[in-house]
Amino acid sequence: MSTVPDTRPPVTQVPLSDAALPPVDMSIPPWPGADETSGGVRLHVRRTPGPADAEATAVYVHGLGGSATNWTDLAGQLSGYVPGVAIDLPGFGRSEPPEGFDYSMPAHADVVARFVRGLGVGPVHLFGNSMGGAISVLLAARHPELVRTLTLISPAMPDLRPAFSRMSDPRLPLAFLPLVGPRVRQRLAKEHVDQRVLRLLRLCFAEPDRIPQSRKDEAAREAEEREAMAWANPALAGSTLGLFRTWLAPRSRSLWTLAPTIEVPTLVVWGTEDKLVTVRKAPRTARLLPRGRLLVLPRTGHVAQMERPGTVARAVLGMWEEVAAGRW
């Protein structure tokens, strides 16, 4: 049987910057947080200080079940170059959702766009992980004037063949399904918080044993805090369903169709050991983005910004340097 050769152009790799960065210190606590209103939207945000003369601000958007604390280490690495604003999406972290919020991906993207516009800092360096990556794709496609550069870390691009076989606990795929998911999550929630946190870390990290105890303790405290929030479970269930609906959207509204319309410089980062969003989608994602480049990290899972913050920071700075030099 003959095969048709792949004539698509190769994905250009991103250079890693030689810029000075502080040593990665995963023992630092999360950046201070507060509720802020911007563009008529009220969210809980964690701000990272940066140079007063920085040309732009970084905005960080977490994934499904995550929060602004997912960006602690990467934001710290980049704080010598840009100030940062890590947001808790509606219903996640400490952001109480507005009444009637529908948790669709367009609704989340609209909230982030309104918040960013209200900041009044010009186009931003936008970062998105997992579901936050899908939200960032929607935002960049619909509001290009708000985005200076885009960094997508394991973005949740449509995939109707997820690799559930790679998950260590067979119950986890069921927990994300619309009908049976709530019952499965209720059973999982009855387990001790340390067990739940360990399961989550094993799902998201390639090398969970290397996570410092301080980060595990933070995750446990955050899980216990969310248990007291009445909106936490509806937000998780609604956003899961909203993400699935985005995957099933007609071709005209698919993220795969929107990606080629994004003209801003884009860095795509993926871990080879990602159990949630397969690395098989990485080359296609980068190729479809007109100014996309790809960084694939070995021994890395779903949250490269948490597992390899130093390397991701150097890749981001490499992108910014290439853009400034007119080579991206």
TrEMBL record:
Domain of life from the UniProt record: Bacteria
Gene3D superfamilies from the UniProt entry: alpha/beta hydrolase
Pfam families in UniProt: Abhydrolase_1
Protein known as: Alpha/beta hydrolase
Keyword field contains Transcription regulation: no
UniProt xrefs under SUPFAM superfamilies: alpha/beta-Hydrolases (SSF53474)
One Gene Ontology MF term: monoacylglycerol lipase activity
GO biological process, one term: acylglycerol catabolic process
GO cellular component: membrane
Annotated region described as Disordered, given as residue ranges: 1-24
Keywords linked to the UniProt accession: Hydrolase
